[in-house]
Structures are given as C-alpha cells and as structure tokens.
Design brief:
Largest sheet: 6 strands, antiparallel
Number of strands: 16
Structural class: alpha/beta
Number of helices: 16
Shape: elongated
C-alpha cells in the first residue's frame, strides 16, 4: 500500500490535490511555514488517528475535509476525514471507499459512512493484517492487544520532532501506551509471531483446562477404585454407630452386599415428632395455672398476716383491761354507807382533792369487764379464720406441686427430644455421605470407565503438545533473531555508508528497548549515548530503511511507504540556510557530504525495492543533483504553499 494522492477540500468546494509517484522517492521542498510538515499529520489523521494534531491557523480553518488515495496492487482506497474544529481534541468520523479507478471525488460526494476504528480494520485486512492479538503474560491485568493498521503506521512515519531524537526511535513512542504496543506488535510485523497466534493461544488455554479436568477425573476414579473396599467398610461402621442399621446382618465382605446395606441405611428415616405442638400447648396452659395458684397463695398469706397482727393487738389490749379490773377490785373493802368524797376511807382524814365516788368506780369496773368479755368472744372466730386460710393454702400448694411436676416431666421430655434431634442430624449427615459415595462409585468403578478416562486424558495431552509446538517460545525467539539479523545487516551497511559515529561496528535494533545499539570497543552503546543530532538522524534513517527493506522482501503486512519530515534540520542552523536549502549554505564540507548521502541512501533503497516501496520527504534541502531534482514533486518557495492563500478570499474565517 502506497500513497497515490493527498487531497484537501476547502469549505467552498475547491480541491488541493497532491499526487505522488509510486515506488519512488518523492521530495517536497520549501521554506518554513509552507505546510510541508502538515503532510505527515494529514496522512496520520486520514489513516485513522483520532487525536487532532493538524495545525490551527486561519488558513487551515478553511479546510473542510482531508483525504488520501491509497494504491494497493489490485485496487485503490479513499480514506477521508472531516476536518477537526479549532477546539476539537479528537474526531472519529470517517469515509471509506474502494474502487479500481478511484479518483479525487468532489466535496459534495464526501459523506461519513464509518468510524476511525472500522477504517483501520478495513484497510488493515486489505494489506494482510490478520488475527494478531498479543496475549499478555499470565497474571497481567492488561487486555489482549490486537495488531491493526495504527500499529503498522507507527513504523512508517517520522515527524521533525522524532527523526532527530536520541530518546525515541519510532513515531509517537513517547506517548502513553505506545511503547507497549510497539513491543507487542513488532515481532508480528517481522514475521516471528504467527498470524493466528491469538487463536492458537486461546485454543491452548482451553486445551490445558480440558487436560487438567480429564486428569483430575482419571485420578479421582483411580483413587476411588483403589480405596473403595475400605471406604465401604468405614461407611458401614458409621451407619451402625448412628443407628441407621439395627443389626449386624451385613457383615459379609462381599461388595454387593455391603452396597445393599448402605443403600438401606441411606433410605433410613427417623420417627417423626407429631406431638411436639400439643406438648407446647399443654406447657403453656400449665404455666398459666401455676401463675394463678401462686397469686392466690400470696393473697392468703397476706390475710393470715393481717389476722395474726389483730391477735397480737387483742392480747395487749386484754392485758391492759385485766390490770384495770384488778385495781378496781379493792372496792369490796369500802364499808357500806361510806359517804364522804372528801375523807380518806382508811383513816377518815380530810382530803385536799375529793376522790371519785364509789359509784363512779363501780361503773368503770363494769365497763372494763364488758370489754374484756368482748375481746375474749372474738378470739375463737379469728382462730377459726386462720385455720380456714391454712386449709385453703394447703390445697393450693398441692395443686401447684402437681402442676410443677407436670412441667418438670415436659422439660425432661424436651431434653430427650433435643438429643434425638442431634442424633437425627448426625443420621442425616451420614446418609448424605453414603448416598454421595454410592453415586460416585456407581460411575467411577469398573475397567471400562477407567479405560475411557485414560483415553480422554491421552487425547487432551496430545492436543496440548501440538499447540505448544506451534507456539514454541524458543521457535518464536529464533525467528525473531533471524529477522533482526537481516535488519541488523542492513542497518550496519547504512551506518557505514553515512559514516555515522560508531557505525563501523555491528549496528542492531533492540525491540525490547525500542532503540538502536552499536558495538564499540568499550561495549554496547545505545542511541541515547551517541552524540549530535546529525548521528541521531542517520541512525533513525538507517533503522527505518532496514526495516522496510525487510518488510518488502518478506511481504509483511506493513504499508509500503516511509514519510520523513525535515531529516536535514540539524544541518541547516540558520533561517536563511533553511529558506534556501542549498549545499553551499552548509558551513562544513562533511555536512554537505552527509546531507547528500542521506538523500542518496533513500534514492538507492527505493530504487532497489522499486516498485514495491515509496518514500515521501518534506525538507528544506534543495540539492542541485539531477537525481535529486528529478525526485522533487513540489517546491514551495516564492509564495507556493500547501494551502493556496486564495482560499482565504473564498473561505473567510473569523
């Protein structure tokens, strides 16, 4: 796949078509700010890059669409993208069209019919990129990487910030995720990894899982067959311990009889407990009756205490009345006819205070005797009440003892039932183990079953071995080393031709570090430690030309073009020198030789691979050599630019 045309469409419908020769060196030379560098961004964008990297300037805002026409051996492809807005960071819309004689369509014929992802997949399939997912290492959290056109394009572009860099070798290598993508896909593009690697890896994973499963089944069957007799006897003993077998009738060593016994044990069912609900109801009634009796006993105790308190008070009162009666009993000694209240009845002397009359004291004595008779009359009735209370309490206590006895019986029954429940659980567990084991040995014993499992495991092992041979990491490493050896030979030749520093030794590509390394007397030196931008440009060119020589010679699915933006920039330090781009503007003779050598090497390689390889270079250089001038497709000086300034008149921008 090579670039036939780059097309720009103005918003008013004008077209700027840049045609390029297939299988040749195409040079676009000119002064600064003429749009040379934008060509690489346009191709990158039209081939599916979503990020908007095109210049934002008044003249570029006049562009409505960008397009490229790609030439394949048997057809052409139009890949077109609407121009991103000034503030847009990414665009996914695209147009894809295929045709044998496809030309530059008009603006009105452009339409969005796909997205950038589908665009890359469609073009990638047409250049031969197959199912090339690279599986991550075991335990990695990264998703499988599927090689596509976007990864191949990374090997075809070198912008002005990359071509002279000592830190990066490939396009966009300094962006997040790109180094990992390059490391994963370069082995595929070099042919070391089979195209169906992803499918084979998936098949291998499935085959390994199937093999592990077959081996596990075979191992379990073999172990079960070896230990079946001892396991059956062990289960038989457990069944007897837990009451699943009530006799020792099954004591024969015959396997069939033991299995029959265990089958009976596995079907054992314990007696049910249908009376549990009635028992709980009776227990509730008895608890309620017990509470009622206890309340009645407490009430009788309170009445008895009250009567006892009254008896104590009556005894104290009777004692006081008896003492009063005893004192008044002396009235019988007073002579009859005693009349003086003011004279002592014993001696007859006059009293200072008159005493009560004898009549009054007799009256008090009668009252006291009457009260004492009343208290003595109440005592028998109180004692009768106490006896009745005691009799009632005795009856209630008898009832309470009966109820508590019934509750105690129920508690004992519940304890027994709990034991039975524990036994039932143990029986259920044992029945489950017996049933599971009987089901297992019914399918895992017998020579026929073991032979089938052995045959299945052997077939699974053969499948795994076959897939591992196809995905042999050592074989892949050998293929990669062979491919890199070819590339290294070409790189070494190019480095010698350009007379690069350390170019006399072996020059190699390190795909793990994505850099160039050279052999020096002091050891291996990476590009990062090789001085001057002039050497950096030379090694970039040597590496990419060598890679494309390999891709073309081995028909690898990589676009057959290389775009370079300003590879001679380190040699033209002044703006005036860049504007003219002549050899005489270079101060050193060796720089003139090297600049000429850069383009001569490009011309030689593209001629060697013609018509299978194309180079497009945007540069300041305008060398006088006939072969160089014959390669110049566009010379943008004296007002010539990528986008005509007249577009500003017909497409005014704010």
């Amino acid at each position: 796949m090579q670039i036939r045309s780059i097309i720009l469409y103005s918003k008013s419908g004008e077209k700027r078509v840049l045609d390029f020769r297939l299988g040749e060196l195409n040079i676009v030379t000119g002064t600064s700010e003429t749009g040379k560098s934008a060509l690489l961004d346009i191709v990158d964008y039209c081939l599916g890059r979503d990020e908007a990297t095109l210049p934002v300037s008044p003249i570029f805002t006049t562009v409505a669409w960008y397009a490229v026409i790609l030439q394949l051996p048997d057809t052409r492809i139009l890949a077109a993208r609407p121009a991103p807005g000034p503030t847009a960071k990414s665009v996914t819309n695209a147009m894809f069209e295929v045709g044998i004689d496809l030309g530059a369509p008009e603006l009105a014929d452009l339409r969005i019919n796909t997205d950038s992802t589908q665009l890359r997949q469609q073009i990638g399939r047409r250049i031969g990129i197959g199912d090339t997912r690279s599986e991550p290492a075991s335990g990695s959290l990264t998703a499988p990487l599927s090689a596509n056109l976007g990864h191949a394009v990374l090997l075809c572009l070198q912008n002005q910030d990359e071509v002279a860099s000592k830190r990066i070798l490939f396009h966009r290598q300094n962006e997040r995720g790109i180094p990992e993508s390059l490391k994963a896909t370069i082995p595929y593009f070099l042919g070391a990894v089979p195209e169906d690697q992803a499918a084979l890896q998936q098949q291998l994973r499935q085959a390994k899982r199937a093999l592990r499963s077959a081996e596990n089944r075979l191992k379990a069957a073999q172990e079960a067959n070896q230990n079946v007799e001892s396991q059956l006897q062990s289960l038989l003993g457990e069944a007897r311990v837990h009451g699943l077998l009530v006799d020792d009738a099954f004591s024969s060593p015959d396997r069939d009889m033991i299995i029959e016994a265990l089958q009976q044990a596995s079907s054992f069912r314990p007696a049910g407990h249908d009376g549990d609900e009635e028992q709980r109801r009776q227990e509730l009634v008895l608890n309620e009756q017990s509470a009622t009796l206890r309340r009645q006993l407490r009430s009788l105790a309170e009445e008895r205490q009250l009567l006892n308190d009254l008896g104590s008070e009556a005894v104290g009162y009777s004692g006081a009345v008896d003492r009063g009666i005893s004192r008044l009993s002396a009235l019988s000694l007073v002579p009859d006819g005693f009349a003086g209240e003011h004279s002592c009845p014993l001696c007859g002397n006059e009293l200072a205070e008159p005493d009560p009359t004898v009549g009054d004291m007799h009256t008090t004595l009668e009252v006291l005797r009457s009260q004492l008779d009343t208290v003595q009359a109440v005592q028998p009735r109180r004692e009768q009440a106490l006896r009745e209370i005691e009799q009632t309490a005795t009856g209630l206590r008898e009832q309470l003892r009966g109820i508590e006895g019934a509750l105690s019986v129920i508690a004992e029954q519940r304890s027994e039932q709990a034991g039975l429940l524990g036994q039932a659980e143990a029986q259920a567990y044992t029945r489950g183990r017996i049933s599971a084991y009987l089901g297992q040995i019914s399918t895992t014993t017998g020579s026929g079953h073991l032979q089938r499992l052995q045959a299945g495991a052997a077939i699974a092992q053969e499948l795994v071995q076959g897939l591992e041979e196809q995905l042999d990491s050592e074989a892949i490493d050998d293929k990669l080393a062979h491919s890199l050896g070819y590339v290294s030979g070409k790189m070494s030749n190019h480095a010698k031709f350009l007379k690069l520093e350390h170019g006399d030794g072996l020059v190699r590509l390190n795909p793990k570090k994505l850099t160039v390394v050279t052999d020096t007397p002091n050891g291996i030196t990476e590009l990062l430690r090789i001085g001057s931008g002039k050497n950096h440009v030379g090694y970039h060119l040597a590496a990419h030309l060598a890679l494309h020589q390999y891709f073309t010679a081995n028909s690898r699915p990589v676009p057959r073009f290389l775009m370079l933006d300003q590879p001679t920039q380190p040699y033209y330090p002044s703006d005036m020198a860049k504007a003219r781009g002549r050899l005489e503007d270079l101060a050193l003779d060796e720089d003139r030789v090297t600049v000429t050598g850069l383009f001569k090497l490009m011309h030689q390689v593209v001629t060697e691979l013609s018509p299978g390889f194309q180079i497009i270079v945007s540069d300041h250089a305008d060398l006088p050599h006939p072969w160089y001038q014959d390669s110049v497709r566009y010379n943008w000086r004296d007002g010539e630019k990528l986008i005509p300034t007249t577009w500003l008149d017909t497409n005014p921008t704010p």
